[in-house]
Specification:
This protein is α+β, with helices and mostly antiparallel strands and 644 residues long. A five-stranded antiparallel beta sheet has the order 1-33-31-30-29. Strands 18, 19, 20, 21 and 22 form a five-stranded antiparallel beta sheet that branches. Helix 2 (433-442) crosses helix 5. The protein is globular, with a radius of gyration of 24 Å.
Amino acid sequence: MRQTALFFPFVLLAACSSGLTEATFPTGSQTVITSSNLGSLYVVDEDGGSVSRVSVESGESVSYPVGVQPERVARAKDKVFVTIRGERSLAIFTESGTGLTLDQKFEVGAEPVGVVAREDGKRIFVALSQDNAVVEIDGSTLAEVRRWSVEGHPSWLALHPSNKALFVASAMGGGLTRVDLESGTAEAVALPEPVGAGASGQDTFSRRLTGDLWISADGSRLAVPGLYVDNLTPADDPAGSGVEVSGGGYASSGSSTIVTSRFNPGVTVAELDTTGVVTGTARTVFLAGDSPIKHGGEIVRSYPTSVSMPPRGDVMVVTMEASSTAIVVSMETLATTADDSSTDTGGSSGPLSQGFSTAATVFTSMNAGPHGAAFLDDDTAMVDNFLDHSLRSLDVGEGRRRVNVLLAGTSSELSMKMEGGNVFEGVTPELDADVEAGRKLFFSAVSSKMASDGAGVSCSTCHFEGRNDGLTWTFTDSVRQTPSLAASVAETAPYTWTAGVDTIAAEAIVTSQGRMGGSDLTAQDALDIQAFIQNIPEVDVALRGSTDASVVRGQALFESADVGCADCHPAPLYTDNDNHDIYGLSGVNTPSLVGIASSAPYLHNGSAGTLRDVLESALTGAMGSTGGLSEAEKDDLEAFLLSL
């Protein structure tokens, strides 16, 4: 990486009362961390298949190849750990004054994402998103010690400084799990439920957790990023070929006023005792605010991708990859109920009236795709911007000063904005130019080409990581489940559930210009988005390639004329690229079944929560025919589907 400006000095901090030797030691999984001597940064480069060591003083960078799709990095003592999602592996490096040496890589399970370690290095914890499990690994022998089942694609981790509790956030279903490392039990953590207010007065917000969580250095607070989505209030669904579309869709509730809308970012903060047990009532801090980016828009409100805290723990830093923004947030809540009307200017649509809390916030401009942050000291953080392969400094000290101005009541506002600091420019992009350009559009909630101002939506909001969000959306004339884009999509035309759009580029126009409220997306822009979507890798489902006897028997049933699955879902793409009248709906496009294990809920309307529910729905022959199968045969058929 090339340094474009001088950088802040770093200092080594004293130990925390929690027992941490190093106050900046990362308690949560991250894409960027500091080295043990705070003189370097380690950052994963998913595109380049490497981890880079970046000098804090000079900005010089050395890349170390590690494998396909590195995801998160952690360290303990002189060891650095990197999850390699595309190879089901964990890589272990030894750090020295001159660089990193790869010790070994070993398999841990399907799609490892989050990784954290005890500061003494005795234990390593890895989230296996497609195994729906978290594993504990002995730091000396590298043997698996324990494994916990955690549903909903567990992806992000935070380890309490006492080493007595591990928190696990799942990408699907909005679930947070606490693992008691003393007793070995795992239990769900109750989170606040902001309610929303749909047209009929019903509760409308669905919670999703969206990134890396954190525990303060003293162990007293847990912070979890998430998005509260109104997917139940009906939205207009523009139809057509993708060439002529009209506005509306689920971005129509975008607003230039900071109120709750269809997409509502927040960070849930919970108080913890000395062993990492949640005490009291957690609160969710609403995080929409004035944009610091000169993109023509006014409001930032996209999903948060990480949260972290400096050693002092008085503020938190939240990254929003789709808005090119990092937010400094006060840990002192300004208001928690609708009774605090002086701070809730949105009336019935204000965040307090919808069940959120508010806090003093400073919105800070970053480069494209801020994904994580590492602290050098209490006042300085470096933010990893994955879309343009850069690191940018964040003056947390100045953010704290501005937050304190807001807390002192000398400003009538709830938030301020400021510019980010120095930039370490990234390595040469590994992707083709059209793929790079398309990815930036796909991940943008602030480009007027993609979405209306204040809507807070990007393609990546619903197609999280290029996949799906696990939600079903209500439109004025139908209900639709979000399909995954991670399964050879280029070969599975037509697109959308029923409209029969012929190309991905045309569908990009339908979605961005019609549903998201964007304007003036060019034909080349749409082709760039198409190029990126065609580049999204398939999901590495846990049973992929299995030759287990149950899978083999299930394949025979799938292909049998009596059951009839293969009539519409023939190999190798498991779609006939056609449409059929089914379950009372005309012209439903046949989806591919590749990677179906990871894309619940199922059917066009999301009415089947599991693959077993799909098989039960086919008992009458409405879609295939499973009525003649025994329970054991349905088990086998389900096993085969899970292996695709």
